[in-house]
Structures are given as structure tokens and as C-alpha cells.
């Protein structure tokens, strides 16, 4: 079914048994597969491709322009045309108010089985590997490639043009500033390091006032 006040533009197709709720906006040349649920207020920009069994929760935005602005001689910025699209494969879940930007050229890919929480930002030309889960308030910068079966906790920040190996676990509020090449690691802290080492350092930081007093007494 298609809910009230929903707009579906030209050359778009909707698969069988897909439900599109109220106040959804679907652009031109959008293809949505079978058995999908699009909740109220979702905006899907032109040329987006969505597979089967996909759930998109309220007010998510799929296919908005990537953050591309070229600095000019006078200090102003000129927008770089964002000519690509977003491809979402089967069995993906996207949380409320999540945003997934279209590629500058080519595609932003959300691979099969990915689970994205509310308030996640995925930038242009990112690729999220199959069956990866991303928790709330995480931001992934442009052109980063995330492997399969990764777990990314809340408020993680990942810089652009990086590669994250499969089965990487990234704990909450971690900052990823360089590529992760070895699969299966658990990372924490900023900049990211082995999580066990990060926890040891955090424990030492809490003891710094006590240790400082001991050093003064020794002196």
C-alpha cells in the first residue's frame, strides 16, 4: 500500500508486498524491491536502488548530496556536483533519522544484511560490508570501505578514504584515523588502539592525581 500524502516520481518502480507509509517522498528513477517497509517521512532521492526485505524507519534520508565543496580563490565554496547514487542490498534495516549520501560518482553501497541504527551518518562513496551493524550517532566519512561482519558501537567517528578489515569491533566513542588491516580486532580510544590497551591506559589516567602526589613526595 501507499499511504496518504506520499509522492512517487516518474520512472520509479515498487516491488510486490512493499508498504510505503504516509508523507514519504520518492524521487525519479528509484527502484524498491519486494517486501520492504518505508515508514512515514522517509525521503529517497533520485536514482536510489533498494533491494528486497529492506526496512527504512521514519525521517531517514537516502541519497542526499555528498559533502563536496571546492574552495575558491575568494575563500568561498562551490558545490561539486554529486552525480552518483545509493545502492541498498537485501535484508537491510535503516534507523530513524539516519542519512546516507549519494556518491560523487559511482555508488554508495550498503551491502546485504547491514543494520544501521538511528542518527547514523554515512557519507558519499562509502561501502558498508555485508552483515555489519552500526550503532547510533556514528559518522563515517567519504570513500571509506568497511568490511563484512563488523560491529561499530555508538558515537564512533571514522575518517575518510580508509579501509576497515572484516570482523572488526569498534567500541563506543572510538576515533578511527587510519586503515585497519588486520581482521578480527577489537579497538577503542582516540586514536584507536587495541581495546585492552586502551582500557589499561584509561585506568592509569584516572590514577594520575594520586600518582602525581606520590612523585611530589618522592622529590
Largest sheet, spatial ordering of strands: 3-6-9-14-17-20-23-26-28-29
* Strand content range: 25-35%
- Helix content range of the residues, please? 10-25%
For the residues shown, what is the average pLDDT? Answer: 96
Radius of gyration, in Å, reads 21 Å
Task: Give an overview in words.
The chain has 219 residues and is mainly beta. It is 11% helix and 31% strand. The chain has two helices and 29 strands. The chain has helices at 195-206, 208-218; strands at 7-8, 13-14, 19-20, 25-26, 31-32, 37-38, 43-44, 49-50, 55-56, 61-64, 69-71, 77-79, 85-88, 93-94, 99-101, 107-110, 115-116, 121-122, 127-128, 133-134, 139-140, 145-146, 151-152, 157-158, 163-164, 169-170, 175-176, 186-188, 193-194. It has a ten-stranded mixed beta sheet with strand order 3-6-9-14-17-20-23-26-28-29, with helices on one face. The longest helix has 12 residues, at 195-206. The mean pLDDT is 96.
Structural descriptors:
219 residues, mainly beta, 10-stranded mixed sheet
How would you summarize the topology of this molecule?
Elements lengths: L6 E2 L4 E2 L4 E2 L4 E2 L4 E2 L4 E2 L4 E2 L4 E2 L4 E2 L4 E4 L4 E3 L5 E3 L5 E4 L4 E2 L4 E3 L5 E4 L4 E2 L4 E2 L4 E2 L4 E2 L4 E2 L4 E2 L4 E2 L4 E2 L4 E2 L4 E2 L4 E2 L9 E3 L4 E2 H12 L1 H11 L1
Parallel strand pairs: 1-4, 2-5, 3-6, 4-7, 5-8, 6-9, 7-10, 8-13, 9-14, 10-15, 13-16, 14-17, 15-18, 16-19, 17-20, 18-21, 19-22, 20-23, 21-24, 22-25, 23-26, 24-27, 26-28
Antiparallel strand pairs: 11-12, 28-29
